[in-house]
Amino acid sequence: MRLLFIHSDHLEFETTTEAGDDLAETEEVPMEGRMDDCVTAFVSVESEDEADLDAVVENAADELRDVTGQLNTRKIVLYPYAHLSESLANPDSAKTVMRNLEAALEGEYEVLRAPFGWYKAFEVACKGHPLSELSRHVTPERGEEAADAERAPSEWKLAFPDGETRDALDAKDADPVSDDMRAFVEDEVEGKTASKGEQPPHVELMREKELVGDDELSDVGNLRWYPRGKLIRDSLMAYVNDLVVEYGGMPVETPIMYDLGVRAVREHSEKFGERQYRFESGDREMMLRFAACFGQFSIMRDMHISQSDLPLRIYEMSTYSFRREQRGEVVGLKRQRAFTMPDMHTATRDMEQAKDELEAQAKLSLRTSEDLGLNYEPAIRMTQKFYDDNEEWVENLVDDLGKPALVEILPERHHYWSAKIDFAAIDQLGRPIENPTVQIDVESAERFDIEYSTGQESRHPPLLHYSPSGGIERVLAALLETAAKQETPRLPTWLSPTQVRFVPVGEEHTDYCDALADDLESAGIRADVDDRSESVGKRIARAETDWVPYYAVVGDREIESDEGLLGVNVRSEEAEREMTVEELRETILDEIGDLPKKKRYLPQHVSKHPHFTGR
Q: Which class does domain 493-608 fall in?
């Protein structure tokens, strides 16, 4: 189905002539009509929609809910319009879709449907703002939710490092189970949505701290990054890149677009359950890439891989990944339509090597939780057959992880993976933010013709999908949610946009502060100077608001001190410590260690910092 949406001051139509014998609707639909302040949806029902008319109606209704939500209107005109496609459904199918789409929206919206099978005179007045003209391509594919509803339920357990495994609901209140894991079980197993309807704190924090914002000129779920937020994002990307290369991943880069005429791309999109972004390019339909899987599979397919090369790890920082989230699914940094996904694929010799890699990569994920200051709760998911064949291995894996793990056992395999581990941070409202993941893929090598040679024969390797951090945006969401739980909110020092701030008492102290800041900058520490003509108290308050981990007020006493001592406020300790600038430098460098050291993205003087959100 093709949809063209016009945010209209009004749409008015009048039927004139029947378009053909037995095509025209004449009953239960108006022959003329008008609607003001509405969304006009011009609709072409296509031949591919006939594969599942009910599904295409459901998906089209979701798109209309999405668009009307963006435009804040509850009035819709459904206008059949054959000119959007060259591959039309038969008239009876098209009429059925139009009628059922109207029925699906009634009760939620005021709906005016123009009749099918007529030439019509019409007048439409477009409002002319940036979102007043939108288009969509809707397909009849059903979402995973519908398929999941028909599947047998999973069995859920809690596994403990001492080897004990118990029913998840019976064990969730046991002493070793943390509050975060208890919330995870309630969400995953019981289907309880904590604080339903409430906005997670990170959404307000990302705006208040001038990190990330929504761009009203773009579709919902596409974000704009301000200097502070971009510095954090870039630092996280550099961190993951270094981590993966150290582990043995080989960075590559693959195209953002693929030709949908290639059968494998279409199959890949269908198999991985993505809702597609498509657009026309000349006479070909193209697809924006959703993740790095296909590009990396393409590289592996074209390689000559021998058994001695395994495990072979190909890695990409996919800065242009997309998911077609529906209205109501987009939430701040937790779910977006465009996101940044570190993605590594590992080809392994056999299932034993695949299990070894899964365990090693899971442990690497827990290392990221330490570096980021996040608590991750693990969920191990596998088929019943995999569990039966590897129950002892699962027990040892949980023991190595060193904390209770939620275990999901699926009666049969419905996905490309047979086993996976997800790690979730729990937000302040008690809801999971799933971040790192590692999965054993048992079918993609064959589907994408990936082989390795033993010297005597060619074999398809088990593949692992791995993201050591999860989506970068979700990592920042988890960092902000963790900060929101703290009595004194803060980010890890290595990620703080300003790591040290100097507050000169008077203008005559600014040059000295600049020299101190320059000294720290030369060592790779981000330092700035609040030179604004505000009271010292207000500038201290600004340092607190900006979550600066170290700040010092500098006046005559500090400049004249023989020892060069500064009274440094240490945010993590909620206390002031006396130290020289050399001691301050060494303290911060010890704290950061080998983690990335990006330079400042804002001027050294706070007076030169623009306000990006009008706060």
A: alpha beta
Cβ-in-10-Å burial (0-12, 13-18, 19+) of 488 comes to: exposed
Residue 304 Cα distances to 252, 308, 456, 458, 461, angstroms: 16, 11, 14, 11, 13
Q: What DSSP character marks residue 308?
A: G
Q: What is the pLDDT of residues 432-451, one digit of tens each?
A: 999 999 999 998 899 889 99
pLDDT at residue 582 tops 70 = yes
β-pairing, 463-467 with 110-113?
unpaired
Local confidence band at 66 (pLDDT 50, 70, 90 cut-offs):
confident
Model pTM greater than 0.70?
yes
Q: Do 445 and 425 meet the contact criterion of CB atoms below 8 Å apart? A: no
Cα distances (angstroms) measured from residue 143 to each of 73, 276, 325: 26, 12, 11
What residue ranges do the domains of the chain occupy?
2-142, 155-255+306-485, 493-608
Residue 278 confidence (pLDDT) above 60: no
Q: At CB < 8 A and 24+ separation, what contacts does 96-100 make?
A: 96/53, 97/1, 97/43, 97/45, 97/49, 97/53, 97/56, 97/57, 97/60, 98/43, 98/45, 100/53, 100/54, 100/57
Q: Please list the residues that pair with 281 across neighbouring strands.
A: 284
Contact 418, 445 (CB under 8 A): no
Query: Residue type at 593?
Result: G
- 212-214/257-259 β-pairing: unpaired
Confidence at 338, pLDDT banded by 50, 70, 90: confident
Q: Is the separation of the CB atoms in 299 and 344 below 8 Å? A: no
254: number of Cβ within 10 Å: 17
Q: Where is mean pLDDT largest: 138-147, 277-286, 388-397?
A: 388-397
Q: Which CATH superfamily is domain 2-142 in?
A: D-tyrosyl-tRNA(Tyr) deacylase (3.50.80.10)
Say if domain 155-255+306-485 classifies as CATH 3.30.930.10.
Answer: yes
CA distance 144 to 189: 18
Averaged over 113-118, what is the pLDDT?
94
Between CA 525 and CA 520 the distance in angstroms is 5
What lies within 8 Å, CB to CB, of 392 at 6+ separation is none
Given a cut of 90, whether residue 555 has pLDDT beyond it is: yes
Distance between CA 321 and CA 256 in Å, rounded? Answer: 8
Pairing of β 575-580 and β 565-570: antiparallel
Pick the closest to residue 600 from 469, 511, 501 (CA basis): 501
DSSP result, 215-253 = -TTS-TT-EEE-HHHHHHHHHHHHHHHHHHHHHT-EE--
pLDDT, tens digit, for every residue of 175-221?
Answer: 889 999 999 999 999 988 777 768 899 999 999 999 999 887 876 66
